[in-house]
Specification:
Strand 5, helix 5 and strand 6 form a beta-alpha-beta unit. Helix content is 27%, strand content 20%. Helix 2 packs across helix 8, helix 3 crosses helix 5 and helix 8 packs across helix 9. It has a 9-stranded mixed beta sheet, with helices on both faces. The chain is globular, with a radius of gyration of 18 Å.
Length: 315
């Protein structure tokens, strides 16, 4: 065992359970035009299963993020992945009138899933009666991190209405934001300000839900003039109980969380992905009130490693 891998292995965790994954389940979505396609993955055993609602990054779909979804489902969570309108699989024209409000349709997608959990539960053989609806987390990567953040209390200045609507959802008890955009305004590059208007004015002051923020210290996105530190803003600018996992050397794909293929990442690193899998699992079990031992062990392992892959800080 390498010292850098200690954090991933010192967390007590059992072998993954077999999982079942059903896709697509299509939800009626008035006003969206296209039905909303959803994927549900769950362990074949266990009861009182907590839920992770996951929002994909720009262009991805319910088919992405297997390294996270499969791991979480194999270790006791039900993972629900909607496909958003901006997905390449939808093929929305660039001049579609809904484009300026893609961020808002994403949040509606997430809330629609929460509103129709009965239908989604019934779509998975053997899942009926096994969900713990008092323990729901929202997670997301990149654009999906902002989407999940809206449910946690993050407010976005809508480019159409010019208002920052409160979209907080009390059904969400914890969050995980991976490589998520920070402060807008003068911190944005001209490209981001012109093409991604929903990032002009995020307000983290109301994002009070317990959240783990994950950022790579080599994530040089062409969206902010501040460099990788920008991705830590959701931690530093939000109140309440938050933790930040900074991954050393990680770029925007964080080692390969978006998929199993090498072409889906710029910085392939299976060991880093394994660390993210276990740290997010441990954090959510802690934040959702299941048990604290695994989260304590993950923090201890990173802090004591002679060659750590990252660091965890909390407030």
């Amino acid at each position: 065992m390498t010292a850098s891998g200690a954090a991933a292995t010192d967390v007590a965790i059992t072998a993954p359970a077999p999982i079942v994954s059903v896709k697509p389940v299509v939800l009626e979505a008035p006003g969206r035009r296209e039905g909303q396609r959803v994927r549900i993955s769950a362990p074949t055993t266990g009861s009182e299963l907590p839920i992770i609602l996951f929002s994909h990054g720009f262009g991805s779909s319910l088919n992405g993020y297997g390294p996270l979804a499969d791991f979480w489902a194999g270790h006791g969570f039900v993972v629900i992945q909607p496909t958003h309108l901006g997905s390449r699989t939808v093929g929305l024209p660039q001049d579609d009138p809904r484009t300026p409000r893609l961020w808002r349709f994403r949040v509606q997608d997430m809330k629609r899933v929460l509103d129709q959990l009965d239908l989604l539960e019934a779509a998975v053989p053997g899942l009926s009666g096994r969900l713990d609806r008092s323990r729901i987390a929202a997670a997301g990567h990149s654009f999906g991190g902002q989407t999940a953040g809206n449910l946690l209390g993050l407010r976005v200045l809508d480019p159409v209405s010019k208002h920052a609507e409160d979209l907080y959802d009390s059904r969400i008890k914890a969050g995980v934001l991976l490589a998520t955009a920070g402060r807008g305004g003068a911190d944005l590059t001209p490209f981001a300000a012109e093409n991604l208007p929903w990032w002009k004015g995020p307000d983290f002051a109301y994002m009070t839900t317990p959240t783990l923020v994950i950022a790579g210290d080599n994530d040089e996105l062409p969206l902010s003039i501040r460099g990788p530190e920008w991705l830590a803003d959701p931690y530093h600018l939000s109140p309440g109980r938050k933790s930040l996992l900074t991954l050393f050397g990680a770029e925007h794909s964080l080692g390969g969380i978006a998929g199993y293929e090498v072409r889906e990442t710029t910085d392939e690193n299976p060991e880093r992905v394994a660390l993210i899998q276990r740290v997010t699992w441990a954090y959510l079990r802690h934040a959702l009130g299941i048990e604290d031992t695994s989260w304590t062990a993950a923090q201890k392992a990173l802090s004591e490693s002679v060659a750590p892959m990252g660091r965890i800080e909390s407030k």
